[in-house]
Design goal:
About 0% of the residues are buried. The protein has a single domain, classed as Up-down Bundle (Four Helix Bundle (Hemerythrin (Met), subunit A)). By secondary structure, the chain is mainly alpha-helical. Strand 1 and strand 2 form a beta hairpin. The longest helix is centred in the C-terminal third of the chain and has 21 residues. The radius of gyration is 22 Å and the shape is extended. The chain has 5 helices and 2 strands, in the order αααααββ. A two-stranded antiparallel sheet has the order 1-2.
Length: about 140
Amino acid sequence: MPLLYTLFELLDKIFPAKIAYAHCDIPCGIYDPHLAQMAAHTVIRMVTLINELTPKMTPDAKPEQMHEHVQKNPDLHDLVWKVMKLGSKVKQEVNLQSSEDLLETVNKIAEIFWKTKDMGTVRYKSPYPTARETVYPAPKKS
């Protein structure tokens, strides 16, 4: 291993990597910090769950809630299957209808998701150049 490390270190000195500069923070005119926020929440939650594990538990243990959600929402399995198929399809071809079907299927899953949290949903025209409807959790009334 030290020989390989030395070789790469030498190559890096002979052919140093160029510094990359970004020209744009907003590709395609769609930028929303929501995905980064959700990613950060996910990391925090996963670290919390991992820290709560006992020696008898494993990170891949599935909660009983998942089975309960599928029973309460029998079309959830088909929607997830459909979103996976559509996700593959839109990567393979340029097809606006399939892209719109993907968004609508994801919106239906979002409605089910928020329902499992005892929250209603609303559909709003997205603020993005696509101008399609997106499902959001409805604010709870005080």
